[in-house]
Task: structure prediction
Amino acid sequence: MGCPLNGRRCSRLHTQSRGMRKERSLGAEPGMGGWRASVGYLRITSNLGSAYSIRASLLRTNNQAWRVAPQSTFAEAEFQFMPLFVLGARLGGFVRIHGQGQQRGLLTADISLML
Result:
């Protein structure tokens, strides 16, 4: 599931740049607790799909967000590492840029299965 979005789907568009192993990415993650948009860079490091990605994201929560104040906006920098083509781990740090609440920022970590 995912805090604060609490259940989300991710769609990414990758555009090839300077060869097959370097790509730009544009992503959208709508969820029940808000939405997230990101832009970044993906580098494939092996023929088995190993890769890493660096992205900047914007997260906007709605009234159903978990563990953060509703109607808040956060900016984030994140790093994702994928040792195999379907398995990945992601780490990011958010800073609130709009809205009120107790948290000034969020630290996120997740494991993903990409199909």
User: Anything to note?
Assistant: The longest strand covers residues 73-84.
